[in-house]
Specification:
The chain is of the alpha/beta class. It has helices spanning 217-224, 246-256, 265-282, 289-304, 334-350; strands at residues 12-14, 21-22, 47-49, 56-57, 68-71, 79-80, 89-93, 100-101, 114-117, 122-123, 126-127, 133-134, 147-150, 170-173, 194-197, 202-204, 209-212, 239-241, 357-361, 365-369, 378-384, 394-400, 404-408, 416-429, 435-439, 447-451.
Length: 452
């Protein structure tokens, strides 16, 4: 209350390092609803400099203050209260993992044009002092919001988060495992839209485009909630599929591991150029599947075209007291590598997984065992929620040298049926002594188990 007399003239606020939290209005218990927070009524306030020790911004702290520009919150911040920044003029904000955000925290921020939702962010419904409740409605009435990005790892969204965001054009959902979506009604929808049929509690979200992964849990959740519109004319559908970047990501990872000193300058430059283009495309939110595939192929072709430089020998010269099998700076004979690889492939082509058994155990565990495969160095075990083993449905995978073990995974749920497959692998050393795997086929007959 002592500093309220400066409300009409204060343009900048600096929170010193000793401040760890901004409380709600005096007399209101922190955690409960307060429309009027610590700096409500500071009608000239343009920016706030937060310190790196701040953990909490209480309810209504900057309610309707004319804050401008980017809101820079510290990584230490774990809680933003109800209506904390409602009605401000901020243009951007970077949320981080593990935060809890109260209802309407950024509602009516009409200069926000883009927002990214990271994983492990909780959107709460906070009880008010009069017994009513505030729905999450985090970005309700942000009328200039055009783009929403939901990062991988997000599994649930709060009701009314983007209600009445009339300018929304694109919603990019990179999380394939969203399993909960509030019912789409005129009062409880996540995204903007007009009620289509109150009887079925659905909304027609035809003013913006969903970007989702095909055959993902998220796609099915959106369908069940009535968000997706199928149309014979694709131009009238309200969703498109995100490209699968698995192969490109693998090629980028392989290229980044290469040692430039082992190759000619020109051949390695081709890899560097292809890698830079691949990374840039990977960051392009609107990249198509065709562009992703082309970038993966270009990078792969550049890697395959690498030429060893004059100081790397096909037949290694072994310095005194150096063992060729224990140093990766000496190139192994390419003919020997090819022979080892050919032998490993032959072994795995003949290998078969037999006597595979899958049993339910207590505490949501699955016991798996099979007959030892001759010549196998180890095995790969996978568990999926669907028998087609789509990437988005695989909930467990593990490499093991054992022929039996018990699977325990937090994604395994009671009263659900799961599918299990196993394959063997042999190994060989590449030209730099790195161990490479060659796989057998998966077990011929798929196994399934219902967890009790």
């Amino acid at each position: 209350e002592e500093y309220q007399k400066y409300a009409d003239i204060t343009e900048h606020i600096v929170l010193e390092s000793g401040i760890t939290r901004i409380n709600a209005t005096t007399g209101v218990i922190p955690g409960q609803n307060s429309a009027y927070g610590a700096f409500h009524g500071f009608n000239a306030l343009k920016d706030v400099q937060f310190n790196n020790n701040l953990t909490e911004i209480g309810e209504g702290s900057f309610y309707e203050c004319p804050l401008e520009g980017e809101l820079n919150i510290p990584d230490t911040l774990t809680y933003i209260g109800v209506r904390a920044f409602k009605g401000t003029n901020i243009t951007s904000i970077k949320l981080h993992e593990g935060m809890t955000i109260g209802g309407g925290a950024f509602a009516q921020c009409n200069l926000l044009t883009e927002i990214t939702i990271p994983k492990n962010v909780a959107f709460t419904i906070t009880p008010s002092t009069n017994g009513n409740s505030n729905k999450p409605s985090t970005f309700t009435n942000c009328t200039k919001l055009k783009k929403v990005i939901i990062e991988e790892g997000v599994t649930e969204l709060g009701s009314g988060m983007f209600l009445n965001c009339k300018s929304l054009e694109n919603v990019y959902i990179y999380s394939s495992d969203i399993s909960t979506m509030p019912i789409c009604t005129s009062t409880k929808n996540v995204f903007t839209g007009t009620p289509q049929d109150d009887k079925y509690n659905t909304v027609l979200c035809d003013t913006f485009m969903f970007h989702i992964y095909k055959d993902s849990t998220t796609e099915q959740t959106l369908r069940d909630a009535g968000y997706l519109i199928d149309a014979t004319d694709e131009t009238k559908a309200n969703y498109v599929y995100l490209p699968n970047t698995t192969t490109l990501d693998e090629k980028i990872k392989n290229a980044e591991k290469l040692d430039s000193s082992k190759y000619t300058e020109d051949s390695f430059k081709a890899v560097t150029d292809a890698l830079e283009k691949a990374k840039a495309l990977r960051e392009n939110i609107d990249a198509t599947q065709e562009e992703i595939n082309a970038a993966a192929k270009a990078l792969n072709d550049a890697i395959n075209a690498l030429k060893l430089n004059n100081t790397t020998y096909k037949n290694p010269i072994i310095p005194p007291a150096v063992n060729v099998m224990t140093t990766r700076d000496v190139t192994r004979d390419i003919n020997q590598v090819n022979n080892d690889k050919k032998q490993a492939k032959k072994q795995m082509k003949q290998a078969k997984i037999t006597k595979l058994t899958v049993k339910n155990k207590a505490n949501k565990k699955i016991a798996v065992s099979w007959k030892k495969v001759k010549k196998a160095k180890g095995y790969e075990v996978q568990v999926a929620a669907k028998k087609n083993f789509k990437k988005s449905k695989i909930i467990f995978k593990k490499f093991t040298t054992k022929k039996k073990f018990t699977i325990k995974n937090k994604k395994i749920k009671s009263k659900k049926t799961y599918y299990v497959r196993v394959r063997a692998y042999a190994t060989y050393l590449d030209t730099y002594g790195n161990e490479q795997k060659v796989y057998s086929s998966w077990n011929k007959k798929l196994r399934k188990v219902k967890v009790k």
